[in-house]
Amino acid sequence: MFNALYFRTFITLVETGSFTLTARRLEMTQPGVSQHVRKLEQYLDKPLLERHGRRFTLTEAGRRAYDYALKLFAEHEQFRHSLDADSLYSGDCRLASPGSVGVMLYPFLLGQQQMHPGLTVSYSFAFNHEITQDVQAGRYDLGIVTDPVRHPDLEVEPWHREPLCLVVPADFAGSGLADLMGIGFINYSDGLNHAGALLRSNFPEEFRSISHFRRQGFTNEVGMVLDAVARGLGFTVVSRLVLETSPWQRQVKELDLPVAVHETLHLVRRRGMEIPRRYVRLLEDFREQRRQALFGYSEQPGFG
Asked: Which chain positions lie within coiled-coil regions (predicted)?
């Protein structure tokens, strides 16, 4: 007999790679997890796992069962959400974004949930490639990415722009490119691209490549990169969202530059998916709030 619960247990087992972690996450016993897998194997009449002591690998049938289960639950969630697609103030909001966006968007969404208890928020902080994979698999309805992606199963559209900021230690006394090269660069996941774009636009005669700058360190968590700057270890270039929400704002400063450069954020969704009204309202309200804060008016040039 078909039992969706067995497939859910199997998905969790594959994603955790552990019977113990699966049992803990699903609040089951470990023998219960094993029983679900055996029942699923009996139903499909195929072995799904090759066991190696406490570890396991998937058989070909196991890989196909996992892919099928992801599509099954993605379609289920899409159907469930479609039932309340017209509601502005109720339903689950499942989004993913890089940390540079989530540091401000996630608290905003939580505030909306407090005002509208019918809303629930499931938010993931992830890298661009992870976000597109999760949206494609149906684990999240919408993703926000900093790089436009091309995929036959996904629709991508520009959504919002945030200024890039060149951030230096608070006691930094320089102003030119040579001064910046003297203190070195603190990198993070999107740091090289952001720094290259901003420096190229503002120092067109002098700047050649960010590779000419001494590297003073790297972190994969953009929210922490300003800690290194605050300690005087170098400079970096981040979205204004990161600077405005950083606990190190008083220990760093933004270097004034003549040419503004923006990071474009893109919305990603499964092709053909109609965005429920609650998402449209929440994202537009957030964008409107940022427009007012950044530009002092509601309509941002270049975006409708």
From this structure: none
